[in-house]
Design brief:
The complex is a heterodimer of chains A (227) and B (106).
Chain A lengths: L2 H17 L19 E3 L9 H13 L9 H32 L1 H14 L8 H8 L3 H25 L3 H9 L4 H37 L5 H4 L2
Chain B lengths: L1 E4 L18 H24 L6 H11 L3 H6 L11 H13 L9
The chains are: A mainly alpha (227), B mainly alpha (106).
């Protein structure tokens, strides 16, 4: 701290301590305190640093926190991964069974897909204020936003994948006497697994696109907060 | 320059916080503007023209928090105590009474 600021701290403390020795917002002095004089560290060249400095700073930021109390990039990455996977897994937990059911049974398809098709066009960020009001300002609204952004697409994509299962496989199983439950567990699920895996891979990428918006709502966290 | 301590200027709406980067040329102007603001406060105080009230108390609360970044850098506060006014108040007391000794600038 500069001597100039040290003098200001002492001067302000005289004013503060005359009102109260401990903090009480109602006992703060009504006369204006002096501002601390801006203090900074040289950090040039700030616009075009040398490549090795970029690499070294990148590694430093990745492994170490900031002296001003910021988390390291690695810690932020973990927070972001937790939010993306939280929303994505929650979406899988609900979306995959619904998608498969809608793909197999036309009654589910007719019941769910028109609404899902409508809701998937609603921009997920429009729900952000509502989500913060409902779930607070921490991770829950962020996970919910990733869920909303992924879930509706997931239902439609997976129902279409299920519908595209080769009918000859179903017919062969039925010819061999498979019951509906056996068709589901021995033919449909194993039959769609490769495409389901591919769909989920693409939908996980979709979840990451919602991350930036998700991390901006409520308390900024994760990679988005990094500066 | 990377700001460790920042302050609000009454004459401009741009706000810089600890951690922001400003150019070396601007840094001097920024410091001078704050010094001028402080001189005005001291002159008003000497002439008995100080204005007070609820707004001033709120401003004072913000001024107390100007020390938060520096206190975290010195290890006196945790990063989540940036708005813990009671803890920040104790840091002001500690520095003023010499119990806490901040690192000298490089």
């Amino acid at each position: 701290m500069t001597t100039e600021n040290l003098a200001i701290v002492r001067q302000n403390w005289q004013t503060l301590s005359s009102a109260s020795q401990s903090f009480d917002v109602r006992k703060l002095p009504e006369q204006p305190l002096l501002n601390l004089i801006p203090q900074g560290l040289p950090s040039n060249p700030s616009y075009l640093p040398a490549p090795h400095e970029v690499l070294l700073t990148g590694w430093h930021n990745f492994t170490n926190g900031d002296p001003l109390g910021q988390l390291s990039l690695f810690d932020r990455l973990l927070i972001s991964i937790r939010i993306v996977w939280g929303g994505f897994l929650l979406s899988c937990l609900v979306g995959v069974p619904i998608g498969v059911l809608a793909g197999i049974y036309s009654v589910f398809s007719k019941l769910l897909e028109p609404f899902t098709d409508f809701f998937r066009y609603m921009p997920a960020p429009a729900f952000s204020t509502l989500l913060v009001a409902a779930f607070g300002a921490d991770d829950a609204p962020k996970i919910s936003l990733v869920f909303i952004g992924t879930f509706f697409q997931m239902v439609l994509v997976i129902s279409k994948t299920t519908r595209q299962l080769d009918h000859s496989l179903l017919e062969a199983a039925q010819t061999l006497g498979a019951r509906p439950r056996q068709l589901f567990s021995h033919v449909v699920i194993p039959g769609i697994l490769p495409d389901l895996y591919n769909d989920l891979r693409i939908l996980l990428g979709w979840s990451w696109t919602w991350l930036v918006i998700a991390e901006l709502i409520g308390v900024k966290t994760g990679l988005t907060e990094f500066y | 320059m990377r700001l460790e301590v920042s302050a609000d200027r009454a004459d401009v709406s741009t706000v810089y916080i600890a951690g922001d980067h400003v150019s070396k040329e601007f840094f001097g102007t920024f410091q001078e503007a704050i010094r001028n603001g402080n001189n005005t406060i001291l002159q008003d105080r000497a002439n008995g023209n100080e204005t007070g009230g609820l707004m001033t108390r709120r401003d004072n609360q913000k001024k107390l928090r100007q020390l938060a970044g520096l206190a975290i850098a010195n290890g006196w506060l945790r990063s989540n105590q940036r708005e813990d006014d009671s803890a920040i108040f104790q840091v002001w007391k500690g520095i003023a009474t010499g119990v806490l000794v901040p690192k000298a600038p490089p």
